[in-house]
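Hey all, sorry for the wall of text incoming. These are the two entities for the joint prediction.
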Amino acid sequence: MRVVVDFDLCESNAICMQIAPDIFEVRDDDFLYVLNETPSEDRRSNLEESVQRCPKQAISIEE
Amino acid sequence: MHSSITIVGASLAGVRAAEALRSEGFKGNIKLLGDEAHIAYDRPPLSKSFLEGEMTSEKLSLLTTEKINELELEIRIDSRVSSLDIESRTLEVKGGVEEFDALIIATGARARKLPNTEKISGIHTLRSLDDSIKIRDSFKSGNPKVVVVGGGFIGCEVAATASALGIEVTIVESQEVPLSHVLGEEAGKVISELHTNNGVQLKCGVEVQEIRGDSQVEGVLLGDGTLLEADLVIVGIGAVPNTEWLENSGLTIENGVCCDQTCLAAPNIVAAGDVARWYHRGYGKSIRLEHWDNAAEQGKHAALRLLQTEAEAQPYAPIPWFWSDQFDRKIQLAGISDPEDDFEVIVDSPEEGRYTAIYGNEGRLKAVLGINRPRHVMQFKSLMENKASWKEALDFAREIK
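and here's what came out:
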């Protein structure tokens, strides 16, 4: 699976970083960085939670 | 297993409940009943980007036709439920009686109104899409003078949006410092200054005495004798949970539907979102939240509760979190802050527009406030989830300074 972030929507609320810090990081510049675009299958539930809890619905998973 | 589940309330909590039921493999009928004329939509932009006019209502939708079909939802708009009978397990929907197997209560809250102002036009609360459309249209007509009654988060957001559009706006707030009942005086002042620096007028420590105008609002008279001219008054004085329809239901209602720590209100009946008051094990008391993130998460948690036995049921005990966008600032609060808490400012950089402060009491980290510091907010939120002590929080603060 592949993590896709719509950076036009992303507002750097950073909730994704709290749920999956190995995949998402909001750095000191306030921008979101995807640390791992192709996480392994065992990260799916955290990734799905990040998708659901993003207030801007800016994250999606491509299979 | 239930053969059908009825969800009353088709906003975020209700929609997330429906999605959770399907992703957990529930095969029965899901009925989603909403009282508005619109299909489920997202509310946060209503006081921000939608109000500013840069967003279409389609973009707010929480449920596309494709999604409704995929989830096999029986969705009904404009269907207000007027009563519940937990003995006969029936609902009264638009005059007809309908049975249910299991029920999710997600009727949310509504904006509190100023009394005796129904007949005067130009006075609005902001909760629904229709409210936001009316205010947006009024912003565009001529050059209205706007008075916002209530300097809470909604009031501050609307004032910021109006001001960014070049509209003359005054906030009237009964406390000396807006938001000080939540954030304390020091942090409240940081947000007040953000507004005054951006041209918003603040009238604080004063109550609204009278709304002037017969058919159309003309002004707001304050307790100190000041008369503010107004073409448009927006009232942001809190929200009331929508529980009237449950008054004779047999459920316990105390400023919300009372639930146990798993979101269960009665056998096979759960509640979620702004309408639910539940026992939060982490705080050792019952609380009710009016946050987007809570509606989403509790909707899911409550829905899954209906599919679980008592032994399987999990307590719902999240660290609350919300955000508020005002001007170019993202204000976030995680945890529950109290003005009486210990308070420590970690970052205060007016030139960058950044600010982080933490709240603690009884030796524990209780909350974090961030302005354009989402990274810090999430770091301290994680500490709270790990039940960090105040000392651990201060140590961490020194590390990131």
